[in-house]
Structures are given as structure tokens and as C-alpha cells.
Specification:
The protein is an alpha/beta fold and about 210 residues long. The protein is built from five helices and seven strands.
Length: about 210
């Protein structure tokens, strides 16, 4: 694939006025993010084969290779880019929904993944989607997401969601925390350099019902 491989916060999902074709060229060819690699390691411990995955804000869909995937993104350009990249033999395992994530009926899922997309829902829509994801997650299933912290350069933008540590832990109540990495760094993004405050989360639904 053309383009330099990208990883980490440089893959920031950008606002409604972005040139989406340019964004997908920018991220073309990147390997799965390190967060997803950690999630796969956690899944491998279970000894189970890849099952049903839901990816929210799927970008180019690299992360969910090998799973039966419902890919959700509000941008038709994302769907077009994904279809173009997925080999024909893998397309029967792929379902695409072009819609706001919190409006989609979610199937029972072994994996829910979202890289740098959930904060762009804003606080209210994020809360709605999180409740639906928690209900859809199968026993033993993983939720793997990035969330923005309240010391991020963009904190205070009204349409984005920024959480402190207490709020993140409250979201994870009832789930088993596999990996919760809070970190800050100065790095690039599609819109230029910025200070990042991030929570990288891998959590598992326990065998019983979520509290």
C-alpha cells in the first residue's frame, strides 16, 4: 500500500471539515496500533479463535483482520477506503454500517475496538454508546479503546469528550481491567503538533453479568 505506516496518536481522527481522502492517504499502510497488539495477546491467552468484532470509527480496518467484523463509521469515505483494501476473499466476514455509532444495533461481540474515535462523540453520545457496548459485550469479551484525558491540548472543546482518571475508572466499573495505561506526550497529529493526554484501555467482561 502507498504511504508511510502510522502508529499511535498521529492517527488522530479529525473534525467534520477534514479532507477525508487526504486523511486516508496519510494513514495508508500503517500496521495495527500497539494497543490492539496488546489486546490480541490478551485474547490469545483465552485459547479461543477470533469471533465477532465491532470496530467503531474503523479507518482502514487493519485492526480487525481475522475476525467477523461489523465496522461502523459516520463517513462514507471510510467505508469506500475499507472496501477497497479488504481482499475479496475476506469480504464475506465484513459488514459495514455508515452511521453514528450510538444509533447502530450492536450484535453480541467478543471484541469491541475503537482507536481514537470515541472522544469525538462528545460526552453525551459517548455515554450512550458505552452503555450499549457494555450490554453487547459477550462474557469474556474485550473492549479496547483510546480515550482523551483532561490535560490534552484540545480539552475544553465542547464537542469532544475528555475524562480524568476517576471518570475513566467509573466507566470501567463492572469490567475486569486487563490494561489501563494513562500517558502524556508531545507528538504530531493530522492537524499538527499537540500535547496528548491519553488513556489506552483493554478491559474484559467477566463470565457473569456486568454489575
Amino acid at each position: 500500500m502507498p504511504g508511510e505506516a502510522r502508529d499511535g496518536p498521529v492517527d488522530e481522527v479529525v473534525d467534520e471539515e477534514v479532507d477525508w481522502a487526504a486523511y486516508y492517504r496519510y494513514t495508508a499502510g500503517r500496521a495495527p496500533r500497539a494497543l490492539f497488539d496488546r489486546a490480541l495477546a490478551a485474547w490469545a491467552v483465552t485459547g479461543r479463535e477470533p469471533g465477532r468484532a465491532v470496530e467503531v470509527g474503523f479507518g482502514d480496518g487493519t485492526e480487525t483482520a481475522g475476525w467477523r467484523v461489523l465496522a461502523i463509521d459516520a463517513q462514507q469515505a471510510a467505508a469506500d477506503a475499507l472496501v477497497a483494501r479488504v481482499p475479496a476473499a475476506d469480504r464475506p466476514r465484513l459488514e459495514i454500517a455508515v452511521a453514528s455509532a450510538e444509533t447502530v444495533d450492536l450484535p453480541a461481540a467478543d471484541l469491541v475496538y475503537s482507536g481514537f474515535s470515541l472522544p469525538y462523540l462528545g460526552p453525551e453520545r459517548l455515554a450512550v454508546l458505552w452503555a450499549r457496548v457494555a450490554a453487547a459485550l459477550a462474557p469474556g469479551g474485550l473492549i479496547v479503546v483510546n480515550l482523551f484525558g483532561d490535560r490534552d491540548d484540545h480539552a475544553g472543546e465542547p464537542d469532544l469528550a475528555f475524562l480524568d482518571r476517576v471518570a475513566v475508572e467509573r466507566l470501567l466499573d463492572g469490567l475486569e481491567i486487563v490494561d489501563l495505561d494513562e500517558h502524556e506526550e508531545d507528538a504530531g497529529s493530522f492537524r499538527g503538533p499537540k500535547h496528548w493526554h491519553l488513556f489506552d484501555i483493554v478491559a474484559r467482561r467477566p463470565p457473569g453479568p456486568v454489575r
